[in-house]
Write a structure and sequence with these properties.
Two copies of one chain form a homodimer. Chain A has helices spanning 12-30, 38-44, 49-55, 59-83, 89-114, 120-147, 156-176, 183-199. Chain A is mainly alpha-helical. The first copy, chain A, has two domains: 1-57, Orthogonal Bundle (Arc Repressor Mutant, subunit A), CATH 1.10.10.60; 64-199, Orthogonal Bundle (Tetracycline Repressor, domain 2), CATH 1.10.357.10. In chain A, α1 (12-30) crosses α4 and α4 (59-83) runs antiparallel to α5. In chain A, 42% of the residues are buried. Chains A and B meet through α5, α7 and α8 of A and α5, α7 and α8 of B. The structure holds a DNA duplex. Chains A, B: Residues 14-74 form the HTH tetR-type domain. Chains A, B: This is TetR family transcriptional regulator. Chains A, B: Keywords: DNA-binding.
Chain lengths: 208, 208
DNA sequence: AAGATTTTCAACGCGGTGTCAAAAGCCAAA
DNA sequence: TTTGGCTTTTGACACCGCGTTGAAAATCTT
């Protein structure tokens, strides 16, 4: 990938590389990734098609880099909830809301990265790393609550995975067809769903 | 699609068409659909590449036909649970088990059909039809139970969608990496998860 | 057996991919 | 300033898979 080449200085080339990632983020918003041509990506970053290959070996590799940069953002989103304890409904809802907001903007490539069947080896690697990380964090939070006697039981790793999957798929659906959903309703229901999934109960929503 | 042409007799051509669908089902088991070439599909059905276009206009169209034939099977799977009432844990678990068994075999194209971001317009149409149907059936069952005071509340349509998504994504994950999961554990947890999602509680599992 | 219809195939052009070797730009040491 | 070694950029090329076309072959009608 790019990690091998890019050592030392922020040379001209590194800027271009970043420009490509940024360009991709923008271009991927407009049309299905499978329909985006390398020529297009290169053009958006101001270089020719064959120049592209100097920086990435394929469209997938570029997508992988893009996803890789998304880690930090995703971490921030769930941070509040992960740091809290027990059934902090409001914290969870806020975290979910942040996630949905991001999906509404970058849903196209998020979907490709996290839901697509075979996004190529490059993306796969990054995807697995990210998903594992997210699930692990969630899972340890569940275990912590389990020790406090708050949860309803069940294997924490699986429950975490289900919660994460539930989250992404619903976000993806909202992205795909925003008109079909009432966002607040989705967030409320999703919050309750996750709480019930893990703790068996969902506290009465605080009046909004 | 194919519906226009195929009226009347099961002519030679109709057999070939079915042969293509069957061939596809088999070929799709072996490798990612995006890597399957039309030439390969045609060859597996005993015709040349250009012959393929006499029957389907694209790989996606063929996939759509394949998915279309899968309706009946999917319906059978969930029939028992949908016909039952309230928290029939065993019925739900059996229905889920049947689904998982099918995904373990045909997960490749099921995933492509139900989880892929943009599987082309042909598949999209069939997919939406099927998903809607599944969600609606589930949703009416929830409403029925809601009237009986069994559920915990929340918009039935959304809950149904979540349950269906939860199901497919977990099945997909098991298909993708069977070694990483204990099937029984997945089924138990998934059963409880859905029950908690809709009814707020999951009854103690009947001893196995 | 003649015509009409259905099915098969070989050949073509198109568009996107990935590779390569040569050219151009850059920078630092002599 | 010139030189030599790097990084970056480019145009040309071969390849592969797609979808079309038009005509030949097989099959079905009477």
């Amino acid at each position: 990938m790019s990690a091998i080449r890019s050592r030392r200085a922020p040379t001209k080339g590194d800027q271009r590389e970043q420009a490509l990632v940024d360009a991709a983020r923008a271009v991927f918003r407009d049309k299905p990734i499978s329909q985006v041509t390398i020529d297009e990506l290169a053009g958006a970053a101001g270089i020719t098609r064959s120049g592209f290959y100097f920086y990435f070996e394929s469209k997938q590799a570029l997508l992988a880099a893009l996803v890789d940069q998304g880690i930090a953002e995703a971490d921030l989103e769930m941070a509040e909830w992960l740091a809290s304890d027990g059934l902090d409904r409001d914290a969870l809802r806020r975290s979910l809301a942040a996630g949905l907001a991001r999906w509404k903007v970058d849903g196209r490539w998020l979907r490709e990265a996290f839901l697509a069947p075979d996004p190529g080896p490059d993306v796969m690697q990054v995807r697995d790393r990210l998903v594992d990380k997210g699930c692990t964090l969630f899972s340890t939070r569940i275990q912590r609550d389990a020790r406090a006697g708050l949860t309803v039981g069940g294997p924490p790793a699986l429950l975490a995975r289900m919660a994460v999957n539930l989250r992404s798929t619903m976000f993806a659906e909202v992205y795909a067809d925003p008109a079909a959903f009432d966002e607040d309703e989705v967030l409320d229901t999703l919050t309750d769903a996750i709480l019930r999934l893990v703790y068996g109960v969902s506290p009465a929503p605080t009046p909004r």
